[in-house]
Structure formats: C-alpha cells, structure tokens
C-alpha cells in the first residue's frame, strides 16, 4: 500500500477510535467554522495528525474544523499566518517546537514574535526522529556500519530534511558531527518530497520524524538505523536508540503544540485545552497513534511554557553547531 494511503488509513483509524462526541460545554466554542493552519505540505506527520485532531474536534463541536496547509520556511510561513489572524478562536496553529525554540536563533529577522504573538494552548503530540537510509542504495544496517560506509565514499553523502533549521536538519547535522562525518544538507518542503529523493538514491540519509517514515520502514524500502527516543519504539523493537548505537547525547523528541493568535480570550484557550485532553486521552487514540509513530499529548499553557524554557538552551546550541543561518 502506498505510504500516503497507509498514513491516511491510520488517520482514519485514529479518527474512529471510539470517542464519544458530546456537545462541547459552556463556554460555547466553537460556534462557527475553525481552520487549523499547518506550516508543512499535505502527507507529512504534522499534516496527518492535525487532520485527525481536527476531525475529532469537529465531531465533538458540530462545527467544521478544516486544515489549511501553508508550507515553507520550516513552518514559519504557517506560523506567520496564525500570528496575524484575528484572535477570535477561529484560527488554530499547529506549531512545531522549532518555531519558538529554533527560529529566533536561525533567522536574522522574523515576521512575527514567537513569544508575544501566540497563545500556546497545549502540547498535542511528540515523536522521536529516526535515522533512516534507503535500503536499495545504502547497505548499512547500523549506525557504525553507516559511518564506515560513508568514509569509503569519496563523493560523500547528502542528507534531507523538511527545511533549514527543522528538527530533522539539526538532528542529522548533530549525528554527522558526532560520527566525524561530512554531509551536504538538501532541504525539501516536507517528508513527502524527501522520501522519493531518498528512494531514488539522490539522498542517502534522513533523521526525520518517525511518524513520517514508519510506513516505508515497515515496508522495507527504508532501513531504520536508530531512534532518538530514550527507549526503543514499541512497534519497531528491533531498532536501537541512539544511545545504544553509541551516540548518547542525541536523545530528543520532536513535539508540537496547538496555539491561537495572542489576544484570544482565555475561556476559549481553556476550552480547547480541555478538548485536547479528552480527545488525546482516549486509550484507543493513544494506541493507534503509537502504531503511526507518534505519542499523543495533552497539557496546558503553563506546561507548554515550562517545556519551552527547559529546552531552549539545547536547541540554541544545536543551531550553533549546525552553522545554519537564514536572512
């Protein structure tokens, strides 16, 4: 089954995970159509998971909740759309952690303020990154074998990501640094473009979101070398962690939150956080998400801020190490 069809099938399973759909209690929100802005193209992990959550929110509220893709600049174009939207509860942003934690250190200037222009509501999901290679073009089965293979290639390698400064870009740059390897970064608009380039042999490595790659790994077209989580992923128990593969300081999770434009009324923010907790708290939702390579989360604005504060220095240092800089 093609990758996108499998992802959509997984999304359909999530959306029908047995959740009740009672009317949302007071305050009455949403009382009109809502859009969820995603800063990446259709078909990737953030897009698919946003559609799952949007469908559940729509079922529970009785209002249309529609995903709008605004890809580009590592998610910043979509974030800018959210930052400039009316703060009336009709625009939600799927905001990856790189917008507040990476973009300020990467870009000389941003069209929005990642601290002041958003009302962060809740974490919604996280996933490890996975070091993946195209099985038909790269013979390595472990991180050590990959390093040895690269050192024998006078032409070097290239690695793909969904854009400069994204978690996959910085994770791959850190991995190559720890292995003493050089590689040429090739930015794409999203995993839906990176994967075909890898399968054709044009790109030899990605350290990208597991949720975007798990289907092609399970099909055997990609080979997973290691995951960046602290523990092995439940549905890929044979794949070691980076620490087990000899890279102990590459343990991280890519995570995403939902946010409104700053100035959105607090009752609406609280209402959405409660809805996320109900939807993502379903055991069926959590189990199906694990199968897709994601872990569903729910929190509140204070918890989002605490996590941002906790991880800020780590990602600033990863940007410095990568040498990336954007005007």
From TrEMBL:
InterPro entries for the chain: BUG, Bug_dom1, TAT_signal
CDD domains: PBP2_Bug_TTT
Signal peptide (UniProt feature, chain positions): 1-25
Gene3D superfamilies recorded: Bordetella uptake gene, domain 1, Periplasmic binding protein-like II
Keyword DNA-binding in annotation: no
Keywords attached to this entry: Signal
Source organism, top-level taxon: Bacteria
Keyword Flavoprotein belongs to the record: no
Family: Belongs to the UPF0065 (bug) family.
PANTHER family assigned: BLR1237 PROTEIN, TRICARBOXYLATE-BINDING PROTEIN
Name recorded for this polypeptide: Tripartite tricarboxylate transporter substrate binding protein
Annotated organism of origin: Siccirubricoccus deserti
